[in-house]
Write a structure and sequence with these properties.
25% of the residues lie in helices and 16% in strands. By secondary structure, it is an alpha+beta fold. The protein folds into 2 domains: 75 residues, Ubiquitin-like (UB roll); 153 residues, Alpha-Beta Plaits (2-Layer Sandwich), CATH 3.30.70.
Length: 240
């Protein structure tokens, strides 16, 4: 059976002429051409949600900024990925994430292995202008191997998606709205009492912060490994 390829679109990204298939996103095409756009919620192998808004880009002629991870390319599109306006927006997003949660890097087991921390450094965030919300969310240590600290969660939903789409358990979900939103296991049961969790650790490894970690890890020891996603995705495509 012949493989039907999507049509080719031509566009510009930061002044560079590029070609792309119509089913590709701005983020995918930018990376293919060596143009880096920061992300937090996006992870290859998982569905796209556009939750963190860190990958916002400008499209000439469009009124609003758009998330590169969920916006598909169009013919003649002119994309700007790194303007002063975008740098300000991205720093503000990172600052708001720090202010909304409890991210004290010095005492976090993911210190040095945290994507939020890396992005803050990359974007030049040296202080937070917003009042810290000092959340008092649950810290659940009931699981035999892992800990969830909702105070460090940035609601990227990586754990929700990897558990649902890759492991097939759907242990995790988001409960509440706005500033009261939080991750929960099953129907808000303690993680250690979950009837669906397989203890695979996939959620821990895709978490970009110190919200999901292994027990017994000291500061700086919580190394996240996401290589399994690319492998599992490839194997599933082979079986189709």
């Amino acid at each position: 059976m012949a493989v039907v390829r999507s049509r080719i679109k031509t566009l510009k990204i930061d002044g560079q002429d590029v070609g792309a298939h119509e089913d590709e996103t701005i983020l995918e095409v930018a990376r293919e051409n060596g143009i880096m756009i920061p992300t937090l919620c996006q992870l290859d192998g998982l569905s796209l949600v556009g939750a963190c808004r860190l990958c916002l880009v400008e499209v000439v002629g469009w009124r609003n900024l758009v998330p590169a991870c969920t916006t598909y390319v169009e013919e003649g599109m002119e994309v700007i990925t790194n303007s002063e306006r975008l740098q300000k927006y991205r720093r503000m997003i990172i600052e708001l994430l720090f202010a909304e949660g409890n991210h004290v890097c010095a005492v976090c087991v993911s210190n040095g292995n945290c994507e939020l921390q890396w992005k803050a450094q990359k974007l030049g965030m040296d202080h937070v202008r917003f009042t810290n919300q000092n959340p008092d969310r649950r810290v659940d240590m009931t699981h035999e191997h892992f800990v969830v600290d909702a105070n460090r969660c940035i609601l990227c939903t990586r754990c929700v998606r990897v558990c649902d789409e890759i492991e097939g358990a759907h242990t995790w979900d988001i409960f509440g709205r706005g500033e009261n939103s939080t991750i929960i296991s099953d129907f808000n049961l303690p993680w250690g009492e979950s009837p669906t969790c397989s203890s695979c650790g996939k959620c821990v490894n895709v978490c970009p912060t110190g919200a999901l970690v292994e027990k017994g890890k000291a500061a700086g020891e919580m190394i996240k490994r996401t290589e399994f996603l690319a492998y599992l995705t490839k194997m599933r495509e082979v079986k189709k």
